[in-house]
Write a structure and sequence with these properties.
Elements: E1 6-9, H1 19-31, H2 39-42, H3 55-63, H4 69-83, H5 93-102, E2 106-110, H6 115-124, E3 133-135, H7 148-157, E4 164-168, H8 171-179, E5 184-186, E6 202-203, H9 207-217
Parallel strand pairs: 1-2, 1-4, 2-3, 4-5, 5-6
Length: about 220
């Protein structure tokens, strides 16, 4: 830990609990067709996109039907935004940011989501100013599970990947950051808690635990 100079946060499921609302919206889409969407399947696309695994393709395989995904995507997005209208940051975000800033650790965000989504949330929650760089879809050739976004973040901070700690909640995020050469600590949420994170360098129940770990490294109670 002594060599860590940058902490890179995933966004969805780490800074804001968006993933549950997104999953529930997909479940309603499946339920309308009399189908189930188990978490064990859905989590394949978390942290990445539908090139990794697609609920759209899966629903069409189950039903033998084709759908107007442009219209359904629009409706589903409206549901998600409405459900998240009063959502705040994840438990422990402010404590961890304060702890890291006190220790002069640089902070960034690395997400497979769009800048429109991520930047909008960071501004709405009034935490954008804490992050030196925000790297999203379109800032590198490939998104997670490829390592490109993490490597781009390390480049922007002018640090070696090994000097950057990735904080993740998804398997796609875990393997992509490790492929980039970064240590990874995971904080599973109610969507990703079913995943195997045994390969991570650390696992925590909340961000409070990570804040405590950083305080312990400098002997701060």
């Amino acid at each position: 830990m002594d060599s860590l100079q940058v902490v890179l946060f995933d966004f969805d499921g780490i800074l804001v609990d968006t993933e549950w609302a997104i999953y529930q919206a997909w479940c309603r889409c499946f339920e309308a067709e009399g189908c189930d969407l188990p978490l064990s399947l859905y989590t394949r696309c978390i942290g990445s996109d539908f090139a990794t695994w697609s609920p759209k393709n899966y629903l069409e395989e189950l039903t033998g039907k084709t759908f107007d995904w442009i219209a359904l995507d629009r409706e589903r997005q409206q549901e998600i935004v409405h459900e998240l209208s009063d959502e705040g940051v994840m438990d422990g975000v402010h404590e961890l940011i304060d702890t890291l800033r006190t220790q002069e650790v640089s902070l960034g965000v690395v997400s497979s989501s769009s800048h429109q989504w991520v930047d909008g949330w960071l501004d709405q929650l009034e935490i954008r100013q804490h992050f030196d760089h925000v790297v999203c879809r379109g800032d590198a050739p490939r998104i997670k599970p490829a390592p490109d976004l993490w490597l781009e973040a390390a480049r922007r901070f002018a640090k070696a990947p090994g000097q950057c700690l990735a904080i993740e909640d998804s398997h796609n995020g875990l393997i992509s950051a490790q492929e980039a050469g970064m240590p990874v600590w995971v904080v599973p949420n109610r969507v990703t808690s079913v995943l195997d994170f045994s390969a991570a360098q650390g696992r925590f129940d909340t961000l409070h635990g990570i804040a405590e770990r950083f305080r312990a490294r400098v002997g701060v109670a």
